[in-house]
Amino acid sequence: MKRSRRTSKGIMAPRRVSAICIVLLVAATTAFGDIAKGESMQRGRNEGTIDIPASNVIGTSNITAWTDIITGYSANGFRLEPAVGGVIGAGGIIQLEGRVVPFGGHGLGPMEAHLQMTLPGNDMLRFVGMAPRADLYLSTEIDTITPTANPDKPNYSPSLVGSLIIDLDWLALFRRFPLKTYFMAGMADNTQLLYRYNQLSGSVGLEWKMYRHSLFVDAGGALYKEKANTLIDNIADKTYAQSYAWIAPGGRYRLLNRFSILGGARFVLYQDRKKNNPITPDVLRLDLRFEAPLYFRETNTEAIRTLVFMEQEKEKKRVADTLAQAEARKDYFGEYNLGLGVNQVQGETFDYAKERQDLIKKRQEIQTKMDEIENILNETNADDSLIAQPEKP
Hints:
alpha+beta
């Protein structure tokens, strides 16, 4: 029996998907023979979760390419959607992003483009960040039901909507609390159905950003209001009559201190749908993304973040060494020698209170040093070369 090569919208043969992923991975790996070595992290300041981008932009002339695969299951069955995209910094506070599905049901799949502008202070480790976006979507869903559609000539009109991103980077306030909080609100949830529904979407995310990797969880929901069309006698919904909510845990794993693999699983927790012509959101969706920086210059924001992590690691090592030395000076009864003449080394005694005060003093000196470094970086924001390569621990 001859094996079918037929594909449907957003679905392609698994063999072809695998081939595309392998080619992209090999191309990205061979393109960068000089991988960052040691503890130097190439961490873009625009890194967010898999569902919510950061408010920071990538930085002037920086370029990142990525590929992702989305697998979803809904009332309509399974879907498999591979895509490629990229981000380029067009200015100190502006970036351009594009995404396309290479193979859809009728050739090239849906496309989208985003123009994001962030607040000044993009190149600092700021606590509050905000960025409005203009979102352009080109659906490949055939429209033959809206009042302006021509059944003999399907309409693929683009949709231009907007969104807003706000995030809070708690590391800017508390140097031992690397949590980042994300908020995003927009006017698009299922971009393929923008021609048929007015949509409102919102999401919130929490990310624990470790030195190399991170863990995150996103949650959100969407509201749908059906536009006038022939399926409902050209009478539009008066309110947002349909909605659903979801949650999506995931994480970022960094390869070779440069590349990133992001993964997440989205589960629908709640649905409120109409009986006639209901929406069919994915009950389960799996996302897998591979990110590769094509051109990278370290920014002030991530240089400061790297210095904070390095100083924390140094301090942890000093604390561990001090405790190990104190443990070695205990007597047979498990008590510290405090000048009682038991197990003394060369007539010396171990003053635990003094060691503790010295440790507190060292911590204060480290914090003062970090504050001075950040002040210098903020004052010389225009000169990236001063901090392009942070000192290795």
